[in-house]
Amino acid sequence: QEHVVESGGGLVQAGDSLRLSCTSSVRPFSNYAMGWFRQAPGKARTFVAAISWSGASTVYADSVKGRFTISRDNAKNWMYLQMNSLKPEDTAVYYCATEKIRPMKWDREFAAADFSSWGQGTQVTVSS
């Protein structure tokens, strides 16, 4: 079973920034697309952002466009989500997910079912 680990969450004020990090046991690391999802209390898990194996393609949820940036460093086996201008509505547990390379459409949001392996989540709390 693949082991996925994310970190970097915390408690911040509205307007602040955080950077989430994720790594996994898959090798080679570059053979996998990666993404971020989030889940607020009492809510369904929703899409945040995803990145292709090479980093050439990215897609973002409308709610985070212009504020969040997803990136990856395949040489170091790490993937990141830079979150700027955080809002209280961004408060959620954030999950890193991976999917082995296959034909994927990068012009639309992904569903949780599009990814096979998941981390345990890291809590992001944004106060007003």
What would the keywords be for this entry?
about 130 residues, mainly beta, 7-stranded mixed sheet, 4-stranded antiparallel sheet, about 50% strand, globular
Distance between the termini: 39 Å
Q: Helical amount among residues, as a percent range? A: under 10%
Strand content range: over 45%
Tell me the number of helical segments per DSSP (H or I, 4 or more residues long): 0
Number of strands: 11
Mean pLDDT value: 95
Q: Quick one: biggest sheet?
A: 7 strands, mixed
Structural class by helix and strand composition: mainly beta
Helix/strand order, N-terminal first: EEEEEEEEEEE
Radius of gyration from the alpha-carbon trace, in angstroms: 14 Å
Low-confidence stretches are none
Net shape: globular
Secondary-structure blueprint of this entry?
Elements (H helix, E strand, L loop, with lengths): L3 E4 L2 E4 L4 E7 L7 E8 L6 E6 L6 E3 L7 E6 L4 E6 L8 E9 L16 E2 L3 E6 L1
Parallel strand pairs: 2-11
Antiparallel strand pairs: 1-3, 3-8, 4-5, 4-9, 5-6, 7-8, 9-10, 9-11
Question: How is this structure best described in words?
Answer:
There is one protein chain. The protein has 128 residues and is mainly beta. The chain has strands at 4-7, 10-13, 18-24, 32-39, 46-51, 58-60, 68-73, 78-83, 92-100, 117-118, 122-127. The strands form two sheets. Strands 2, 4, 5, 6, 9, 10 and 11 form a seven-stranded mixed beta sheet that branches. Strands 1-3-8-7 form a four-stranded antiparallel beta sheet, with no helix packed on it. The radius of gyration is 14 Å and the shape is globular.
